[in-house]
Amino acid sequence: MKTIGIIFAMDEEINELKKYINITHENKIFDLVFYEGNIGSAKCILVKSGVGKVNAARTTQMLIDNYKVDYIINIGVAGGISKDTHVLDLVVSNNLVQHDFDITAFDHEKGYIPNIGTYIKSDDYLINLSKKVDSSVHVGTIATGDIFCTEKEMSEKINKNFNALCVEMEGASIAQVAYLCSIPFIVIRSISDTPYEGDNKITYEEFLIKSSKRVAKYLRNILLEMEKQNENN
């Protein structure tokens, strides 16, 4: 039986997945609450990190240190920055990048992190599993930075620099910690807003819950497909 660590940034996101899990135990470590339960045969550990890269990285390390997780999955909402992505679309990461990491003064490209590189690759098994569950999902680069991106000019710049499909505030930092600890990972996001479909802030507030519902249901289906494959092997 696999153990899956699932990280969320906000209450709205974690609350939607809680609808699919029978919580058997709660464990509080400092200010974080880790919820243990099962979805199918997968043992799941749910935790809300809070918003931003430092909160997300700290939570990921605490998850790894306190639970023997086989995979780490980050789900939630994101802002679409490609004209191919629309509100409520699903995006699965094949790569993560920190768009605001900048040591270009030392002749490195934007986003390059020493001893890491520019892009951190998601786990192939989890990518293929995600595509099997829904072949219509977008698979590509997800960009992370400590800013809620609302300006069309900034969105276009991040999209151009990294060929990124969407932007959020946690995924690449979770990916970096998981990578350094040799834990397979993936980031899955539902688009809550884009600079091409109305005002970002208004659209975000309108579609936050709908996007959270969509990505939670999708992850539930991924875990059930994982169970089915394990039974057949």
3D structure, described in words:
This protein has 233 residues and is α/β, with parallel strands linked by helices. The chain has a single domain (3-217), classed as Nucleoside phosphorylase domain (Rossmann fold). It is 37% helix and 30% strand. It has helices spanning 11-18, 53-66, 124-133, 152-162, 171-180, 200-232, and strands spanning 3-8, 22-29, 32-39, 42-48, 71-80, 90-98, 120-121, 138-144, 164-168, 185-193. The chain has a five-stranded mixed barrel with strand order 5-9-8-6-10, surrounded by four helices. Helix 4 links the parallel strand 8 (138-144) and strand 9 (164-168). Helix 1 (11-18) runs parallel beside helix 6 and helix 2 (53-66) packs parallel to helix 5 (171-180). The radius of gyration is 17 Å and the shape is globular.
Name a few traits of the molecule.
single chain; globular; 5-stranded mixed β-barrel; 233 residues; Rossmann fold
Q: Topology of this structure?
A:
Layout: E1 3-8, H1 11-18, E2 22-29, E3 32-39, E4 42-48, H2 53-66, E5 71-80, E6 90-98, E7 120-121, H3 124-133, E8 138-144, H4 152-162, E9 164-168, H5 171-180, E10 185-193, H6 200-232
Parallel strand pairs: 1-4, 1-5, 5-10, 6-8, 8-9
Antiparallel strand pairs: 2-3, 3-4, 5-9, 6-7, 6-10
